[in-house]
Amino acid sequence: MKILVVNPNTTVSMTHKIAKAARAVARPDTEIVTTNPSKGPASIQGFLDAATCVPGLLEEVARHPDADAIVIACFDDTGLDAVRMSVSVPVLGIGEAGYHAASMIANKFSVITTLSRSVPGLENNLMRYGLAQKCVAVRATDIPVLKLEEGDPATMLKIRSEIRETIEQDKAEAIVLGCAGMADLMAELSEEFGLPVIDGVAAGVTFAEALVNNKLSTSKIGAYSSA
Amino acid sequence: MKILVVNPNTTVSMTHKIAKAARAVARPDTEIVTTNPSKGPASIQGFLDAATCVPGLLEEVARHPDADAIVIACFDDTGLDAVRMSVSVPVLGIGEAGYHAASMIANKFSVITTLSRSVPGLENNLMRYGLAQKCVAVRATDIPVLKLEEGDPATMLKIRSEIRETIEQDKAEAIVLGCAGMADLMAELSEEFGLPVIDGVAAGVTFAEALVNNKLSTSKIGAYSSA
Amino acid sequence: MKILVVNPNTTVSMTHKIAKAARAVARPDTEIVTTNPSKGPASIQGFLDAATCVPGLLEEVARHPDADAIVIACFDDTGLDAVRMSVSVPVLGIGEAGYHAASMIANKFSVITTLSRSVPGLENNLMRYGLAQKCVAVRATDIPVLKLEEGDPATMLKIRSEIRETIEQDKAEAIVLGCAGMADLMAELSEEFGLPVIDGVAAGVTFAEALVNNKLSTSKIGAYSSA
Amino acid sequence: MKILVVNPNTTVSMTHKIAKAARAVARPDTEIVTTNPSKGPASIQGFLDAATCVPGLLEEVARHPDADAIVIACFDDTGLDAVRMSVSVPVLGIGEAGYHAASMIANKFSVITTLSRSVPGLENNLMRYGLAQKCVAVRATDIPVLKLEEGDPATMLKIRSEIRETIEQDKAEAIVLGCAGMADLMAELSEEFGLPVIDGVAAGVTFAEALVNNKLSTSKIGAYSSA
Amino acid sequence: MKILVVNPNTTVSMTHKIAKAARAVARPDTEIVTTNPSKGPASIQGFLDAATCVPGLLEEVARHPDADAIVIACFDDTGLDAVRMSVSVPVLGIGEAGYHAASMIANKFSVITTLSRSVPGLENNLMRYGLAQKCVAVRATDIPVLKLEEGDPATMLKIRSEIRETIEQDKAEAIVLGCAGMADLMAELSEEFGLPVIDGVAAGVTFAEALVNNKLSTSKIGAYSSA
Amino acid sequence: MKILVVNPNTTVSMTHKIAKAARAVARPDTEIVTTNPSKGPASIQGFLDAATCVPGLLEEVARHPDADAIVIACFDDTGLDAVRMSVSVPVLGIGEAGYHAASMIANKFSVITTLSRSVPGLENNLMRYGLAQKCVAVRATDIPVLKLEEGDPATMLKIRSEIRETIEQDKAEAIVLGCAGMADLMAELSEEFGLPVIDGVAAGVTFAEALVNNKLSTSKIGAYSSA
Questions:
Q1: Domain C2-93+203-222 of CATH type 3.30.420.10
Q2: Domain ranges in chain B with CATH number 3.40.50.12500
Q3: Chain B residues with CB inside 8 Å of A68's CB?
Q4: What family is it from (chains A, B, C, D, E, F) (predicted)?
């Protein structure tokens, strides 16, 4: 099967990192196609970026009509409803996929994301998906998305500090890493803190495989009907 | 990988049907092991059966310590928390898996189950998982679980009638079949009604594969800590 | 004061109708400026239209930096968060304004909108605003937005029938007309059914006046911070 | 139009302060009539005061049958439902008005009120209005209502300290001042803390103007039917 | 122990009926004292009556300072918070008591009350107590409270019809009779419909006995603190 | 009447303590019968113990068919639904009884329990009963159940410290002691902290008496139907 993984921002280095995370978990017979728009915001930080990247995202989706499933590789799940309306294959956001995965292996989870400005959008999504009640905290590190690309040691210190605090104070039992740019940290942090650390890209790709294998596609009755 | 699929009731013909549904979606390199307790209720219909089958379920789980993931093939997700506490691999109930799958491909879904007596237990589960808000109705056909095994045409008429009504009256966009014994009806009903029809056994097996591939296991901090 | 009322679709006749509704309630010293994008969907019906009209909406907003308040004249409140992030003056969606007005004069209200496909988006908004619990039903007439422009008698029959049913069956105490294209029906239907009938355009303009008069502007801490 | 603003306690100096706040935002052609009962509690602090002031409040309302709208100038919104039942014009509580205003300009808000004893009543109101989910905290300064009248510098220090904490700890994006006696502090605190600070009296008066201008009145079907 | 049962309306025949219901369940060593205000509404039907009867209710409570517990015998639980603030003994509303009793013996219950106008107040109470989620319907018979006193056969037909419908349509498992004036119907209807039928007066008196026997009194920290 | 109080664990000394607490509040004419299974977990700490003790609990219930009511004396309310399905008399869990009692005498309450591992089960129960919204915190002392039997002074220090913190930080107005093994501490702690401290065993016994006196039994329609 072919899974299209769209990074909705224009930062190619993030698309590469996403591709690597996607391929690390995909089945041998799954083809991972990654792409990003050529125009639009360089990172998705808050409601304005989330809205303005959607036309580019829809264009990339339209360019790949043979995809068997689509993963939107932005933790805000930006454009998720619009993409679902424009195709009939399964569509997953990586935030959504991460929350579902966390709900299957822990009673309560936390999200560690980038800027404070992004927190309300994630909280809205959690409420819409019904999974807000499984999430004890959405915490911001206040590290900009693109800073994650630079590999600054201070960045990792801040992420570690938030994980430690959310385990102790919020009683989190699992962590969802709230940015596609954190995809490479999953194994290391899980080992270090002794609890599941979830990357939405990996979760999204494997759940997409699962849905395709179930021969399930996006419902075309009601909310996502195209006619 | 090896996935243990436990039918928590003692009806071997259901275990066979579950095995067939599980193998139909599993990857070629996934080994599906199915089992059921030798003692306990012949079907799980309501809170009393759900409680009394748990010791047998736990015994079957203990007999397969090499499983990479466990699927509890009863739509009540009976014993889910107890099994999670007793192992560290991922554990999925087929009700839980069906609700998550439905939430990924439709805005709202309905559940069609067997007896009215089973409805409150399913509603409680949906509330706990947070997914009650995605579920517009849990409808009972009032067909006993074991009656499903007999292939009576009246049974299918009743299931069809409930699906038709929940699409029209409740605005369901997808259907979750609320009993392991309905696993073989999925494709046929989906075709007929033009919307996704989800079988929890298939969803559970593929999500278990996904979680294992993500190297995720049940959190051992908090609710499911064993020490 | 100057209030910018943006119709986010490209149908000029709807913009005229909106302008009329806005001016009918505005204070004498309030200047109402109406506009619509030149490119984008002709009507907003569902998630895809709601996403694709946003760039045009943002452009119109950017063209009027001297507005003291902004009203987004689409009942889906499309782009509301993105617009709030891009300006500091108060921004109101007409769906949002209608729900708040209804909550102030009735214990429970209903929404009568156009297509079934638009219902989930409105329900999501109501949930986000917290006002879902005041709303007993969002009912679709299944009349396309642009059909409302044509003045077909069958259209009015359908709207009346839904209002009658929601009063009797859902115990609605007030009605919010769920489309900017229904703005001219408010007085007539209110008289006929003996209960408040609310037009979001009128509510939005007068609440915008109220916020400006309170010297209140969109918070720039947190969700809508621009930096 | 004529707006009746009733202070439901018997403290005339508070009525004067309320009148000043009301007139500061009212349109030139709006007549503000303020009054208070001659008998009843001197301040409304908790459930007992809130209940015992209602007969006096209803008497004041009955004395002004020509009012076009009524504002109940107590942050507990005491007697709101009863007054709505006894008249047909719009009726707003200043707590209610403040919460709606805050919801229109911020994603999340906090309330700063007087005594801890008053907090549960405000929380109940927020739950009933549906706006509890927009409110991150109701904080008490533990300054009695009438102490606010005295202009003690310690009072202002305590209010400032609570505002600072709720911005930092609760991530409040706007503040609703939870007592009619704080009406004069709005502009100063907003400037100082760089976020919207809302006075319910001002919000109530301008929303009342808006509702009257929309020709909306209290629904007489259902909860507020008088017959 | 002495339990004061206050009928907050002025209809003495209802007080007598309440007294009979209270004494029928009270322990031999429990003294039941019943009373009603001499001034105020003759029945409590909606928010206005509920507010205006409170001063009379508080006077009756103040006249019996030696009561070990207080039961407010109006299904609206009118004045409950105010009475709790004015005494330290346990205080129960009969609506509240009925809902708690129903929650202990059934998964879901319905309320059958008098006028439609009273429904919103009951729904608000259920929401505040947290028990709304256990209640599948609050149904009005549209029989005025005082009409119940007359023993009209049509009255009983209407009550029976609503019970039948709520069992079939709402899946109610128990019925709470939503008016002190229905107290004498409990046994007969329970027998007839084969499910628990709960009278709030009886529930209130026995729960009051239970709380006194537990040596529990109303908390004087927080919401009900009197100082 | 005869009330069967079942300790679902096998620790006889806890059964004795429970019997003492039950008899201290029961009426003179109530016969308290206490028992515990001979096989199963020695204490109920988390989901696994809660599941494995149920068969023994059901056996003890079946051995006493003449009981007029049943109290399950484990704060997890383990097996509550199953027992309700197997009998027709009223059945109360001591957690459930404690939460209902607290809701009747305080606006908000806290629970102080034993291990952190038990907290999620209690939170799930509170959500199911609807009473989560009345509960501001479930706090663990991290003292194992059986440790409570030993009378270690450090145990009491820890319980006191949690009570103090929950009053100050969570604004608890009443405390529910979250373990049958704490039953003897109720009076002492209530006196010391000046707020109601509730023992579920005592609450359960007196509410059972109340339900029996109301001639109420478990509904046999719907969730708890036995056929």
A1: no
A2: 2-93+203-221, 95-200
A3: none
A4: Belongs to the HyuE racemase family.
Asked if F221 lies within 8 A of E194 by C-beta distance, the reply is yes
Q: How many CA atoms lie within 13 A of E83 on its CB side?
A: 36
A107 Cα to chain F: minimum distance (Å)? 8
- Size of chain F, expressed as the number of residues it contains: 227
Q: Which residues of C touch E169 (CB under 8 A)?
A: none
D225 to chain E, closest Cα gap in Å: 7
Q: Which residues of B touch F86 (CB under 8 A)?
A: 48
Please report the pLDDT score of residue D227 as a whole number. 61
SS3 for A106?
A: coil
For helices E200-213 and F200-213, give the axis angle rounded to 10 degrees: 150
Q: Which amino acid would we find at residue B16?
A: H
Task: Pinpoint the residues of chain F covered by CATH 3.40.50.12500.
Answer: 2-93+203-222, 95-199
Q: Confidence class of residue D146 from pLDDT cuts 50, 70 and 90? A: confident
Averages of pLDDT over each 10 residues, chain A, 227 residues: 97 94 96 97 92 96 98 96 97 98 98 92 97 97 78 83 96 90 80 95 97 96 88
- Measure in Å the smallest separation between the Cα of C207 and chain D Cα atoms: 6
ipTM of this complex prediction, to 2 decimal places: 0.96
Interface touch B198/A207, C-beta < 8 Å: no
| Pairs of residues, one from chain B and one from chain F, whose beta carbons lie less than 8 Å apart | 80
What pLDDT is attached to residue D20? 94
The sheet that has A197-199: what strands, in order across it? A135-140, A109-113, A174-178, A197-199
Tens-digit pLDDT profile for residues D60-80: 999 999 999 999 999 999 999
Distances (CA, A) of D147 to D6, D98, D189: 21, 22, 19
Side chain identity, residue C87: V
Q: Which CATH class is domain A95-200?
A: alpha beta
- Residue C226: its chain A contacts at CB < 8 A? 48
What value, to the nearest 5°, has the Cα angle with vertex F156 and ends F155 and F159? 90
Select from F46, F81, F226 the Cβ nearest to the Cβ of B85.
Answer: F46
User: pLDDT tens digits, residue range C106-123?
Assistant: 999 999 998 899 999 999
How many contacts does D have with F, using Cβ atoms within 8 A?
4
Strands C135-140 and B69-72: unpaired
Residue F174: which of F96, F87, F109 has the closest Cα? Answer: F109
